[in-house]
């Protein structure tokens, strides 16, 4: 999920970094998220939050205290420094997802509109019971009753990174890895 905030106040960079971090923590908390990775391009701020260096500025100390207090309200919070060049590179990469096999199913589930061709319309109607639209995303209903989010080609590397290096942990065998990916809600 991406979210953009616009602040209309005058502040030094470090204040703005802290305010943005606090706003982000408030947002994810309101969504009920309990495990958070906060990535920022300010090494100073990330080092301060991680306790690797102190906060000398009184104003920043207040923001620091607020951010640390908020971080304690989550089951797990990780603060990572990401170099600005890497963030700028990611910001320039915007993936436009082309229409694929999901498009007619999603259109049918949201608007009731079938594809123009009779054979395609019948096929869409026959498979649509296996799917569900939730917050604009198409999910497949699993046999266990779980809703599984389709992973598009543009997001596969993100899911694999999360499974191998993120919350899910270590490298495992193929079957176990497939089950783990399915358990976290992807197909």
TrEMBL record:
- What Pfam family is a match for this entry? RVT_3
- The source's superkingdom equals Eukaryota
A single GO molecular function term of this UniProt record: nucleic acid binding
- The record places domain RNase H type-1 at 11-87
Q: What is this protein called?
A: RNase H type-1 domain-containing protein
Q: Which organism is it from?
A: Lithospermum erythrorhizon
